[in-house]
């Protein structure tokens, strides 16, 4: 038995080697390999991780922002100032004022802190919305896993069916080969004609071709499963052909709980919650925003020597300063041209549409469940009938073989009994796995596919 628990599926550790020593791939090993290696499931896991990152406190807007600034400036001045027509007090022409390589530097650094105290509850509801988005991603991953499990079991059971058909056809070929020997012995003793030998050879040829075709189909199906499990395409293994059906009363109980467990319905409900938060986020535009700011800075200015009067020099200086400031701000968009009102109205309409979609999905799920239940019952009944049909044809074949060995019936009549048995056995195999797949599809609709024993 295999019990699949979704809570453990996404972070499942390797439980066993890919294949056991006897190269038998059990259902449990196939499930583990699919969960560990299937590309679709790996992508779903990564999507959940992205949603988890988005729903963290680091993406909520609740934390402040802190920025650092730094700067440096360098200035060099070379100038020559002439004073034509101007004279000093002693009557001499005023000399030129020349400044050469006057260098100055300035350095600064600072920290700026901004924090939003209140934004109309927008970030509060947006953070809740991100949590719902994470839940939605989890449900989408669950849906991917359910679909992958159905795909995997569909191929797995096809391998099991072809394996049982191959065994049946091998047995049929053995019987046909034995007929050739008996026909040859009888011909040697003059008890039949050459025609009996030829008929037996034709049957051996047909049985051999059927067996080869089945083996080819089996090899193709195994490669299909290896693709789903992301394994070596030429891996050789056998599968478990045991099938156990869930009791009818348990399935009926699951159907009664489908509304609260079906993944499609749960996704519509999560989307409804997201739309409800969208309305509240948009309404936050009606309220003011209150914020705090803080700054801390350091500045250093180194000025060069300067002169404004010929013959006199003003020495440069170094000035260091520190500043610290706190501030608060309130911003209220009293009218934004009606943009906020439009967004609120549209989000309410989207919410109403999502409610309608949820009702539609619930109705469709109930319909699909009833259809799936009817299909499952029908296939299960067919399987029970085919089981009885195999018993009948087996008895008929054994009786025919006894009469054929006694010479009471012809080889054609014996061959017909053999073909009837072969068809009954292959039809039973098909009915068995069809019924099991119908059961799994029904369980998926009830939301219990990953919570039951297979």
Textual characterization of the structure:
The protein is α+β, with helices and mostly antiparallel strands and 454 residues long. It has two domains: 312 residues, Up-down Bundle (Outer membrane efflux proteins (OEP)), CATH 1.20.1600; 97 residues, no CATH class. Helices cover 60% and strands 16% of the residues. It has a four-stranded antiparallel sheet with strand order 2-3-5-6, with no helix packed on it. The chain has a two-stranded parallel ribbon with strand order 1-4. Helix 4 packs antiparallel against helix 10 and helix 8 packs antiparallel against helix 9. The longest helix is centred in the last third of the chain and has 68 residues. It is elongated. The N and C termini lie close together (5 Å).
N-end to C-end Cα span: 5 Å
- Name of the CATH class of the largest domain: Mainly Alpha
Order of helices and strands: HEHHEEHHEHHHEEHH
- Look at the helices and sheets and give the structural class: alpha+beta
Helix percent reads: 55-70%
Count every beta strand, where a strand is a DSSP E run of 2 or more residues. Answer: 6
Architecture (CATH level 2) name of the largest domain: Up-down Bundle
For the report, how would you describe the main beta sheet?
4 strands, antiparallel
- Radius of gyration, in angstroms, nearest whole number: 42 Å
List the domain count as a whole number. 2
Number of helices: 10
Mean pLDDT: 89
In terms of per-residue confidence, which ranges show pLDDT below 50 for 5 or more consecutive residues? 6-18
Q: At the fourth CATH level, what is the homologous superfamily of the largest domain? A: Outer membrane efflux proteins (OEP)
> What spatial form do the alpha-carbon principal axes imply?
elongated
Range of strand content: 15-25%
- Spatial strand order of the main sheet: 2-3-5-6
CATH topology of the largest domain: Outer membrane efflux proteins (OEP)
């Amino acid at each position: 038995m295999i019990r699949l628990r979704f809570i453990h599926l996404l972070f499942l550790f390797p439980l066993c080697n890919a294949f056991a020593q006897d190269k038998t791939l059990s259902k449990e090993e196939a499930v583990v390999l699919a969960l560990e290696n299937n590309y679709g499931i790996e992508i779903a896991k990564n999507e959940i991780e992205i949603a988890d990152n988005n729903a963290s406190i680091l993406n909520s807007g609740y934390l402040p922002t802190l920025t650092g600034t730094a700067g440096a400036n360098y200035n060099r001045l070379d100038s020559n100032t002439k004073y034509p027509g101007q004279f000093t007090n002693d009557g001499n022409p005023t000399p030129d004022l020349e400044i050469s390589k006057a260098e100055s530097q300035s350095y600064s650094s600072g920290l700026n802190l901004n924090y939003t105290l209140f934004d109309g509850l927008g970030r509060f509801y947006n953070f809740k919305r991100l949590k719902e988005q994470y839940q939605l991603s989890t449900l989408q991953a669950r849906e991917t896993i359910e679909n992958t499990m159905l795909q995997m079991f569909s191929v797995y059971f096809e391998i099991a069916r072809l394996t049982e058909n191959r065994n049946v056809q091998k047995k049929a070929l053995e019987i046909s080969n034995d007929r050739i020997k008996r026909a040859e012995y009888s011909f040697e003793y003059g008890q039949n004609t050459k025609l009996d030998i030829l008929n037996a050879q034709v049957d051996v040829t047909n049985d051999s071709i059927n067996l080869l075709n089945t083996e080819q189909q089996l090899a193709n199906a195994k490669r299909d499963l290896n693709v789903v499990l992301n394994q070596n395409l030429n891996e050789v293994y056998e599968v478990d052909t045991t099938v156990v059906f869930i009791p009818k009363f348990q399935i009926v109980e699951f159907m009664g709980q489908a509304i609260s467990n079906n993944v499609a319905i749960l996704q519509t409900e999560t989307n409804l919650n997201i739309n409800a938060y969208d309305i509240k986020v948009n309404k936050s535009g009606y309220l003011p925003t209150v914020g705090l700011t803080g700054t801390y800075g350091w500045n250093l200015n180194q000025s060069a020597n300067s002169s404004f009067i010929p013959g006199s020099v003003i020495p440069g200086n170094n000035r260091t300063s520190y500043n610290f400031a706190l501030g608060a701000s309130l911003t209220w968009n009293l009218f934004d041209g009606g943009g906020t009102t439009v967004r609120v109205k549209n989000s309410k309409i989207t919410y109403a549409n999502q409610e309608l979609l949820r009702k539609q999905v619930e109705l469709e799920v109930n319909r699909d469940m009833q259809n799936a239940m009817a299909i499952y019952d029908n296939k299960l009944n067919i399987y029970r009938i085919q089981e009885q049909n195999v018993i009948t044809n087996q008895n008929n074949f054994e009786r025919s073989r006894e009469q054929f060995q006694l010479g009471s019936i012809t080889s054609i009549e014996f061959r017909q009994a053999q073909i009837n048995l072969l068809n009954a056995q292959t039809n039973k195999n098909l009915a068995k796995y069809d019924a099991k797949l119908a059961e799994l599809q029904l369980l998926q609709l009830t939301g219990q596919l990953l919570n039951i024993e297979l």
